[in-house]
Each structure stands twice: as C-alpha cells, then as structure tokens.
Design brief:
heterodimer, A: mainly beta
Chain lengths: ~110, ~120
C-alpha cells in the first residue's frame, strides 16, 4: 500500500500567521484529499487536489484560507492562512490506495495561540 | 452530497463482550464502506471494509454487515479486549482507484472496553 510522509507532525503558531503542510507519497496518485479533524470530532473534507488543476473545495472552505498546491503526482501542500485559534485541529492528507482503499498521512497537529 | 450517521457516540462494554456500531448513509450511489480505528494522537487505521456487492465480511473478531436496501452497515467486534478501546469511524464513498471519490465520515464512536 502507499506510504505517505506528512510534515510537520505538529506546530504551535501565532494567530495571523500561516503554516504550510506537506504530503509526499511514495507512488503516483491522481487525487489527494485534505481533511481537518477538530478536537474530539470526526474528519471533514477540506478539498480534493488534482495534479495540474485547481483544487476542489468543500462547502465552508475557501481557497484564500486554505490554498493547495499539487505540482506533481506524488506531492501536495496545504496552507492554513491568517490563522486563528479556531484553526487548531489535526490536518490529514489521504490518497486512494488499492481499488477501494485509502491511506492517511500521520497528521499535523496545529495549535494556534 | 453524502451524509453518514453513526450510533452510538459512546459505548462501554465489559471485556469479552461484543460491541456493535451502526451507520446509515444517504447516497445510494455509495459502494464502498470502510471502518477506521483511531487511537489517541494517531491517524485513522483501516480495520475492515466492505463493498456493495457483498453483504457481510469477517476478519477474525471483526465483522461488517451491509444492507443496501436499508442503506445501513454495522461493525461487530466479538470477544472485546482492552486494546480495542479507541474511536471508531464509519465512512462511505462512491469508490476510489481510477475514479476516486472522497470519504464521508460518521461522527465516530468512542468504545471503552472495561477489564
């Protein structure tokens, strides 16, 4: 199955700043998904990142706040911009793996102070 | 879009007893239903999944059943052990692979197995 390296694993950031999260996959994948998991909550899809095209954002998430890059089929970044304490969450990337499975990165635990 | 409801939100069982978690989905086009186990501070880990062409799947102490007509699926854990304590998420998707779709997750069930 695919192996994802996600960085950083955690960070503490000042409000108003931005953080870029990276995911590197050991194989080429067409689509990559970015999820947010707020404390004690489930996973919510932020956006779907396709190589060579604009990311598709879910309702409630906008590109200005969560810009995504997908320069090739093995790499993607998610930036959390102009952060506030409400952005404190775990952010995870995910890729389709086998015919029906999905693999998750190890997650980035973000705390905004 | 897809909506996945999961119940119960918390579940406590005695060690050795069985645990059942139930989910319903809304989109009849969904055809893939995984279950994830998430331990504190860790990423979700796939424990079992089922496709819409199968009614039941079992892997040792874990089983999943699917009722496409009623649009619900369930996770069954038998002979529970303390290490089964975690948060469990159900999810639904219209499939991955070449025609990838995102997973829609239920809200999770916190399972506590009491020794």
């Amino acid at each position: 199955s695919a192996v994802i390296s996600q960085k950083p694993s955690r960070d503490i950031c000042q409000r108003g700043t931005s953080l870029t999260i990276q995911c590197q996959v050991d194989s080429q994948v067409t689509m990559m998904f970015w999820y947010r998991q707020q404390p004690g909550q489930s996973l919510t899809l932020i956006a779907t990142a396709n190589q060579g095209s604009e990311a598709t954002y879910e309702s409630g998430f906008v590109i200005d706040k969560f810009p995504i890059s997908r320069p090739n089929l093995t790499f993607s970044t998610l930036t959390v911009s102009n952060m506030s304490p409400e952005d404190s969450s775990i952010y995870l990337c995910s890729v389709p793996d086998t015919d029906y499975g999905y693999t998750f990165g190890s997650g980035t635990r973000l705390t905004v102070v | 879009g897809e909506n996945v409801e999961q119940h119960p939100s918390t579940l406590s069982v005695q060690e050795g007893d069985s645990a059942v978690i139930k989910c319903t989905y809304s989109d009849s086009a969904s055809n893939y239903f995984p279950w994830y186990k998430q331990e504190l501070g860790k990423r979700p880990q796939l424990i079992i999944d089922i496709r819409s062409n199968v009614g039941e799947k079992k892997d040792q102490r874990i089983a999943v059943t699917l009722n496409k007509t009623a649009k619900h699926f369930s996770l069954h854990i038998t002979e529970t052990q303390p290490e089964d304590s975690a948060v469990y998420f159900c999810a639904a998707s219209k499939g991955s692979g070449a025609g990838s779709y995102q997973l829609t997750f239920g809200k999770g069930t916190k399972l506590s197995v009491i020794p």
